[in-house]
Design a protein that fits this description.
With 163 residues, the protein is mainly alpha-helical. 67% of the residues lie in helices and 5% in strands.
Length: 163
């Protein structure tokens, strides 16, 4: 941490790289878990997308079937630390879309399971967990934000390429 004459504190060096490494690996686990949970049952993944009642039917299957592959690709990129800032940016956009979708379902009174880690679809109103899901995804968004700000991390391909 460096304190500049203007009173500005800037974190730099090994501490930020370790925080970034934890953020990168944490986000990789999240995307890996989400992608693997959905990839085995594409029909269920499409049903989870359909339950939000946002996309036209012509996009439900492509999104439901393609999303797990995108999540797994992000997991792999983050795990090895390749294109960290780009992967974090895509993660942030995806998480904002998820937060928006959950908030939209909540605001419209649609009772669904988010389908974030498999499953998904219509549930009883007593089984919805919108606030927890939004808070969880906001936490993941903070990890992505950190990596957008400080993409340099330990044990990353990006770090090796910068040498």
């Amino acid at each position: 941490m460096t304190v500049f004459p203007e009173g500005v504190v800037r974190m730099a060096g090994p501490a930020t790289e370790w925080i970034g490494t934890a953020a990168r690996l944490g986000l990789a686990v999240v995307w890996g878990w989400a992608g693997l949970a959905k990839i085995a049952d594409p029909a269920e993944a499409a049903q989870a997308v359909r339950a939000y009642e946002i996309l036209p039917e012509s996009l439900v299957k492509p999104v439901g079937h393609g999303l797990p592959f995108l999540e797994l690709a992000l997991a792999l990129l983050l795990l090895i630390g390749l294109g960290t800032r780009v992967a974090a940016g895509i993660s942030a956009v995806l998480l904002l879309a998820f937060i928006g979708g959950i908030a939209s379902a909540w605001a419209r009174g649609i009772s669904i399971d988010c389908g974030c880690f498999g499953g998904g679809g219509t549930v009883d109103a007593s089984q919805t967990e919108y606030l927890q899901e939004i808070l969880r995804d906001t936490g993941f968004l903070l990890l992505a934000g950190w990596l957008l700000w400080r993409p340099r991390t330990k044990f990353s391909v990006d770090g090796r390429l910068a040498l």
